[in-house]
Structure to design on (555 residues):
């Protein structure tokens, strides 16, 4: 217990209370077409959006850069529809999540058309590919579960596990009650558990299915 | 007992923030020892924290932001898109006329500084290596002209899978790149009445909360770097046809530029992704013949893959051997060795 303290990345600017109101104002100006405000908004939310994209697609996916770019473009396109009913960062991260998930599915379908065993696209980007570590297996499992569960549950699971957001932060980002978030997370984790139980080594390691 | 009704989410959150008291830490430990669900959640958060690491590089973020703003410029367009459809289209038409005149005066020159371009080229290289095809979009406005006829090599085996995300009516990339296309030539450095301004109505992002269509206006770029950027942006949007046209323009108008050499390999990769293996093999060969080294490793691997898909086993094997000789530690080495070990006839 306590091992997070040395690993946790700096608390994002988007989540600090002092920036919440300022960011909301920036977002309001951006929705009205203020290009300067749009640029500032993007600069603040882009790191978290990039993190969501890397989490969903995998940090070594060759499509990460494109997905980040498309997510930001998607955010700009969706700004006119933003009514300030949720946190701007949450709105942005949801767009990033959906964009990344859609691109991941497209990539998988495209790869399926070729012989995966020999196509270079299926290689990890590392110059020394090795067997997946346990941690990589677990994160890969989460990514596969994201494809299997409803979008709302997948979003909640991604925000919780990939961004490390609290239940309250997820509720604000999604404009839903806290108990709804709890329910979505519970269902998502049940799906995750079913997948883990199908992998005896993971189940044994995590004590799932005992 | 392993079913716990109360899951201390707050304690898990505060553990991340490092604000647990000794008593809370003890309570959390006790709970984790009994609750597999919280243990799993905690483990996953730790896994992702380790995997995703530190925050994005600030320079990368700035580049992404700049690119997104360029891709969706101008704010007037977004404002107009909020109006009722008829008014929006009228405003858009007026704006397009005005924007065309303004942008034609040389907006492209203000796009990127030299350092930014260099960084962008490096990013482009990374993105190129393991790229997968994005679905080409069908533009509702100003789509490039269709090719008259494909220009395929005699006797070449054409492997053209039916990608689910490619509209069947789209011409092949080879058709768009072929010499027989009726695409109007652009005079280098001249901007006459015949010069085109690309007008693209971008599709809304997938499953966005009510995104509105955006009109992005891209003037015909005036430099090799600007053309390369425009082509890359089109490729990222999944607009393969527009990208192919811009890359072709780049090769025609700035044949001696480094960007033109890179574009040969990038186009070849696009062709490979689209199943045009014969053209891809030729394209990779052309790139390698230029002597450019920026994408040499990727081009070697791409050519071998193209030969594989064409069923040209001997050429493929020689391609992999050549790659391994030049780049023994290549990211493609595992694939190359695996193919060579199969000892194909």
């Amino acid at each position: 217990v306590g091992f997070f303290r040395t690993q946790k990345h700096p608390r994002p600017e988007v989540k600090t209370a002092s920036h919440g109101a300022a960011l909301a104002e920036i977002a309001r100006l951006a929705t009205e077409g203020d290009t300067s405000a749009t640029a500032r908004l993007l600069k603040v939310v882009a790191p978290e959006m990039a993190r969501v994209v890397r989490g969903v697609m995998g940090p070594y996916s060759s499509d990460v850069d494109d997905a980040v770019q498309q997510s930001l473009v998607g955010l700009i396109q969706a700004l006119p529809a933003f009514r300030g009913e949720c946190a701007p960062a949450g709105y942005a991260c949801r767009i990033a999540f959906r964009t990344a998930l859609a691109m991941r599915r497209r990539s998988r379908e495209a790869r399926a058309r070729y012989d995966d065993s020999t196509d270079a696209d299926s290689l990890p980007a590392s110059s020394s590919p090795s067997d997946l570590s346990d941690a990589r297996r677990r994160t890969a499992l989460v990514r596969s579960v994201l494809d299997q569960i409803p979008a709302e549950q997948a979003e909640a699971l991604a925000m919780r596990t990939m961004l490390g957001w609290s239940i309250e932060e997820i509720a604000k980002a999604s404009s839903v009650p806290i108990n709804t978030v709890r329910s979505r997370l519970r269902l998502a984790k049940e799906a995750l558990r079913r997948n883990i139980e199908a992998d005896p080594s993971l189940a044994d390691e995590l004590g799932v299915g005992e | 007992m392993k079913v716990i009704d109360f899951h201390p989410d707050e304690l898990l959150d505060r553990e991340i923030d490092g604000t647990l008291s000794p008593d809370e830490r003890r309570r959390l430990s006790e709970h984790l020892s009994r609750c597999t669900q919280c243990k799993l959640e905690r483990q996953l958060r730790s896994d992702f924290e380790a995997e995703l690491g530190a925050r994005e590089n600030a320079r990368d973020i700035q580049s992404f932001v700049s690119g997104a703003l360029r891709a969706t410029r101008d704010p007037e367009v977004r404002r107009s898109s909020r109006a009722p459809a008829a008014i929006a289209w009228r405003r858009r038409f007026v704006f397009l006329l005005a924007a065309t005149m303004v942008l034609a005066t040389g907006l492209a020159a203000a796009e990127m500084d030299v350092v930014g371009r260099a960084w962008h080229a490096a990013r482009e290289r990374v993105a190129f290596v393991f790229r997968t095809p994005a679905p080409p979009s069908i533009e509702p406005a100003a789509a490039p002209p269709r090719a008259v006829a494909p220009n395929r090599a005699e006797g070449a085996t054409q492997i053209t899978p039916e990608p689910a995300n490619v509209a069947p009516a789209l011409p092949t990339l080879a058709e768009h790149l072929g010499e027989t296309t009726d695409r109007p030539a652009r005079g280098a450095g001249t901007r006459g009445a015949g010069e085109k301004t690309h007008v693209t109505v971008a599709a809304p992002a997938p499953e966005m909360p009510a995104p509105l269509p955006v009109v992005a206006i891209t003037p015909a770029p005036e430099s090799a770097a600007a053309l390369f950027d425009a082509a890359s942006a089109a490729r990222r949007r999944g607009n393969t046809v527009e990208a192919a046209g811009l890359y072709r323009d780049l090769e025609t108008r700035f044949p001696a530029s480094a960007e033109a050499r890179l574009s040969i390999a990038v186009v070849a990769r696009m062709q490979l992704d689209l199943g045009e293996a014969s053209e891809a093999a030729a394209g990779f060969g052309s790139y390698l013949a230029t002597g450019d080294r920026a994408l040499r490793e990727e081009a070697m691997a791409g050519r071998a893959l193209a030969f594989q898909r064409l069923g040209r086993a001997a050429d493929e094997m020689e391609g992999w051997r050549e790659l391994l000789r030049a780049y023994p530690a290549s990211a493609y080495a595992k694939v190359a060795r695996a193919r060579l070990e199969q000892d194909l006839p």
Remarks:
- Chain B is about 55% helix and 5% strand.
- Confidence is low (pLDDT under 50) at residues 1-5, 75-218 of chain B.
- The radius of gyration of chain B is 25 Å.
